[in-house]
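Consider the record:
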Amino acid sequence: MLDIQSHVSLKSYNTFGIDAKARYWVEIDTDEQLRTLFQLTEFLMAPKLILGGGSNLLFTRDFEGLVIKMSIQGIRIVREDASHVFIKAGAGVNWHQLVLFCVQNGYAGIENLSLIPGTVGAAPMQNIGAYGVEIEQVFDHLEAVDIRTGETRIFNHAECRFGYRESVFKHEAKGQYIISNVTFRLNKNPVFHIDYGAIRETLATMGITEEKLSIKAISDAVIRIRRSKLPNPAEIGNAGSFFKNPEISKDQFETLKTAYPALPGFPTGDLTMKVPAGWLIEQCGWKGKHIGNAGVHAKQALVLVNHGGATGSEILNIAYKVQQSVEDKFGIRLNPEVNII
């Protein structure tokens, strides 16, 4: 049974805490409900917004269409072999809860992605990643419902066309499918990734030696790092990293390095370097600054925050100003990681 409501506030469904409204709203708990929804002709042509945890959205206006809150649950092992365990999770499963399930059962591969906000369904759309690991490294396939036909389609790894915080669902297939379930391929024999960010140093402060290293230790270290640097959305509205880390040519990087010797960079290919957006923003003097009720977080310049009562337009305004100052100073254009509505 579908319970379609109208004029629903989205304030508690987005981590920025923006009080936008949905013209229509429905919560989906099963695949069957999703298929039923697309048999309702009155909503076929309506604009649709798929909502997971609301942790990667900035509402600058009300949504004059149908908001579909994906709440399909369930985590189960569907098969395994000598080296891998294949785990299927519903689109509405909290991402961190899936990580904890895998860590507790000794299934390796996503421990570096601990405490990332959001849901399983949004993870492949964004190809979420942190500390040297991205979803595409453990992704097997997903099931998605075609909005036009109501039919289920399976997308394999190649068909998802993963890139840095990118997938086919943000481009050619945008607005055409709703992800209902995702299957991941976890490792029985872990490969540890600890040479990113402050993981190695944090493990040392925790008293974790190479002999004691485990996926739980890495998960605990990542959780400690994220809690020390990133604000809790329950306390201050934010959507985590607002901008992507830009990739620039090695030639441009070397030129900038001459002018700014402290400029950090990480090779991403033969001819490109990834530069931390937070460092660029901080060098432009934005860290801890605010305009009205919108601002840049005092501990992490990559995070824009709602100090209370800010509108989406106010947060977007400060984002534009940050973009412009970084481009003026470094000649680098920052692109949002957050989806702007």
Residues 75-187 form a domain with the Uridine Diphospho-n-acetylenolpyruvylglucosamine Reductase; domain 3 fold (CATH 3.30.465.10). The chain has three domains: 5-70, 75-187, 237-340. The mean pLDDT is 92. Residues 312-330 form the longest helix (19 residues).
